[in-house]
Design goal:
By secondary structure, the chain is an alpha/beta fold. Among the domains are: 58-122 and 323-351 and 380-453, 3-Layer(aba) Sandwich (Rossmann fold); 132-317, PCRA, domain 4, CATH 1.10.486.10; 505-543 and 554-583, no CATH class.
Length: 743
């Protein structure tokens, strides 16, 4: 404005707008106090200009309610306080949509919304949603990845079918899908054992559709739906490489149940907008890149995710007539009877140090040691933020209340300061700093209890326990299933009872190739008193890699092949003397026995035999720092959680040998052989010598795993926000509705 005035001064007529028809006088007085701290204002360029706002309408008769700031102990306490204030206003007859909660950053709304939901306070929140995280698009992307992978290699996406079929958009009960999974697993094992062929879910489903296999556990409705869906799925796979991606996605929408589900769901309008936006994105990509393939489109989407970029779509959450939750930016031009400006802390309202260049340009510039002069000075940035704060407080008509908190959640000492804008707008704030708000113990306990219950561990419905009991008959643990049930019940349930195929990945595939190479080295060379050349063993490694080629991308396969070609000569250099010195080995040796009366079996990578003495080894291909950490029992181990995973695994193998007297073996030590070279080319080996105390510790955790199995604690998840199976159960509405505490 200053620049505009200077440029066109000769032609300007100045008209001062001082009449305000919105806000009560305490609000206007506070807003005036605040904005006077800005130097870059038109009124500061001309002494004849005076901008003191005056009440000039109905606002002259508004009660002079105080403009004040309330400090809270932490953000959680602030949420309780705001929810109580809002609840009180609504009980007094104030319409919820005449109340607004404003903030600088959207993250500030989350804890307040949680309390509003608990207290059943209606609210509406407007924000941009990333459709890539919307459940319908997450499911769609799984379908597209499945179609793409299967079109290139059959049964390479077996692990996705369970997650696709159990989705809420298909009316097949979870128990039917779980039984189907175990049935397919048994069928696959039987075919491999009897015919030596590896089959997958697709093979089974196609056989079932053709009537070659019966599945009495499926209802007629579920069977008919499955038949129709899978016929479409096979056509999508068949035509994938020759069809425009937009056309393919449209077919998946209509034939895959997406449109039907979206129109019948209570959020039908939003669901349809989400589907339309994604299809529009795919079509735009086709226009930009003619002949784009499904693989290329999915690659672009992966790039967006990896860069934390979004496909945005404006979304309104809550009830239209509810309390208005919005950012200060979003509130421009609006007005409300009562306004709460929350989280008025220094770090929330002051400008960040980095300039606002898009797409992380600052990090890019830093990487190349480049700088760009700031677009605004620090003072200009502060004045811009002050204007935004001015906008927030002038949205109120009858009363505006500010709030801030003094501590980061979980910390007891004061670590945060109120924004300088609080002190600038609240009269005599520095001289009369308000006391921190306190609550009744019952109010705090109620809020804590209900928030904890909302974030409780997910628990599955206990439907058809007869089927589960049948699967548990004669159940035999392995080291991995013991770890699963101790870590997360749902991980055990899906992996070891339902037996969902695990997702193929480059780490497991590379590890399997190295394991296979080591097995052949010992069985076909060392066992015959031979030692291969680099060329011979690299050829073996190539054969092993090709077995798992479908689990890699092209780049991953090339990189891992190079990694293995570098590793093989180091193996031959590091292992020759010790391997040829002790030529009696057993590889991938399966043992089954009992540990503390619990049935356990395991497959040991390598057993070195010297007379009756044995040493056991397990190969690992991860980072050496991780291998070392997981291979040793820490001196600080408290016993509250299971011990280090590799140490625990080898200890279980040792107990299986000790508890199998017919072997006539004396266990000496157990170790982890790293297949990841150090900088000097060495391949570390971590040997452990287990004491009786160690064995008792391992037995204790095996008994604990068995106890969880018998008590069916595998129907309860761990609750970790990063746990794949807990989140999978929540996203697919498979968990029980958690109870809500009564008032």
């Amino acid at each position: 404005m200053v620049e505009f005035k200077n440029r066109f001064q000769q032609h300007l007529t100045v008209v001062m707008l001082k009449d305000n028809y919105r806000s009560a006088s305490p609000i206007l007085e506070s807003a005036t106090r605040l904005i006077q701290f800005n130097k870059d204002r038109l009124v500061n360029t001309d002494n004849n200009l005076i901008k003191d706002l005056e009440c000039s309408g109905d606002n002259q008769n508004y009660p002079k309610l105080p403009f004040q700031a309330t400090p809270y102990f932490n953000e959680f306490h602030q949420s309780i306080g705001i929810s109580m204030e809002v609840e009180s206003l609504i009980l007094q007859g104030v319409p919820p949509n005449e109340i607004a909660v404003l903030y600088s950053k959207h993250a500030s709304s989350k804890p307040i919304i949680e309390l509003f939901q608990l207290k059943k306070i209606p609210f509406v929140l407007s924000k941009n949603a990333n459709i890539l995280t919307e459940p319908l698009i997450v499911l769609l992307l799984k379908w597209l990845n499945f179609i793409d992978r299967e079109s290139r290699e059959a049964n390479s996406a077996d692990h996705l079918i369970y997650e696709l079929l159990i989705s809420a958009i298909y009316r097949i009960s979870p128990i039917e899908i779980n039984q189907l999974s175990t049935e397919i697993d048994a069928w696959k094992r039987s075919n491999y054992k009897e015919k030596g062929i590896s089959l997958g879910w697709r093979n089974y489903l196609n056989e079932r559709i053709q009537g070659n296999i019966t599945a009495d556990f499926l209802s007629i409705e579920s069977l008919n739906q499955l038949k129709l869906l899978w016929k479409h799925a096979e056509l999508w796979i068949q035509n994938c490489q020759n069809e425009n991606v937009g056309v393919l996605i449209s077919k998946v929408y209509s034939e895959g149940g997406f449109v039907s589900f979206a129109t019948q769901n209570e959020q039908s309008r939003w669901n349809l907008e989400v589907l339309h936006t994604f299809l529009e994105y795919a079509i735009n990509q086709s226009d930009r890149f003619p002949y784009i393939t499904l693989s290329e489109l999915l690659g672009q989407i992966d790039s967006l995710k990896n860069a934390n970029l979004e496909i945005p779509l404006a979304k309104r959450l809550g009830q239209e007539q509810g309390v208005q939750m919005m950012s200060a930016h979003g509130s421009k031009g609006l007005e409300f009877d009562y306004v709460f400006v929350v989280s008025c802390t220094e770090n929330e309202w002051l400008p960040s140090n980095s300039n606002r260049y898009p797409y992380r340009i600052n990090q890019l510039l830093l990487a190349f040691n480049k700088t760009i002069p700031s677009q605004n000075s620090e003072n200009q940035e502060i004045e811009e933020r002050r204007r935004l704060f001015f906008v927030a407080i002038t949205r109120g008509k009858k009363q505006v209340q500010l709030s801030y908190f003094l501590n980061e959640f979980g910390k007891k000492t004061e670590t945060l300061n109120p924004s300088q804008f609080v002190g600038e707008s609240v009269e005599n704030f520095t001289e009369n700093t308000p006391d921190t708000a306190n609550f009744e113990e019952s109010d705090l306990n109620w809020a804590h209890l209900n928030i904890l219950m909302r974030s409780a561990k997910p628990s599955l419905e206990e439907e058809n326990m007869d089927w589960i009991n049948q699967k548990l008959e004669n159940f035999t643990f392995s080291p991995s299933s013991i770890r699963n049930i101790l870590k997360c019940g749902l991980s055990f349930f899906y992996s070891n009872i339902v037996r969902i195929p695990s997702a193929p990945n480059e780490y497991t595939a590379y590890g399997n190739a190295v394991h296979g190479t080591m097995r052949i080295l010992i069985e076909q060379f060392v066992g015959q008193g031979l030692w291969p050349s680099d060329k011979e063993l690299i050829a073996v490694f190539h054969t092993q890699m090709n077995k798992f080629k479908g689990n890699f991308t092209e780049k991953q396969f090339f990189a891992r092949t190079q990694q293995g070609e570098h590793l093989i000569p180091l193996i031959l250099t590091n292992k020759k003397d010790i391997y040829l010195q002790n030529r009696e080995f057993k590889t991938e040796y399966t043992l089954q026995s009992t540990i503390a009366n619990v049935n356990v079996k395991g497959s040991i990578d390598k057993i070195a035999i010297d007379g009756n003495s044995v040493k056991i080894f397990d190969y690992k291909t991860g980072s050496n720092s991780r291998i070392k950490s997981d291979s040793n029992l820490s001196s600080k181990y408290s016993g509250e959680k299971p011990p280090a995973s590799y140490w625990f695994q080898v200890g279980i193998y040792a107990l299986l040998i000790k508890n199998k007297p017919d072997l006539n073996w004396e266990f000496i030590s157990g170790g982890i052989e790293s297949m990841t070279p150090e900088d000097d080319g060495s391949l570390p080996v971590w040997n452990n010598y287990y004491t009786q105390e160690h064995f008792e510790l391992i037995e204790k955790w095996v008994v604990e795993a068995d106890k969880k199995l018998k008590n069916k604690e595998f129907l309860i998840g761990c609750g970790d926000e990063k746990c794949y199976w807990c989140n999978f159960s929540k996203e697919n509405s498979l968990v029980k509705h958690l109870p809500v505490a009564e008032d």
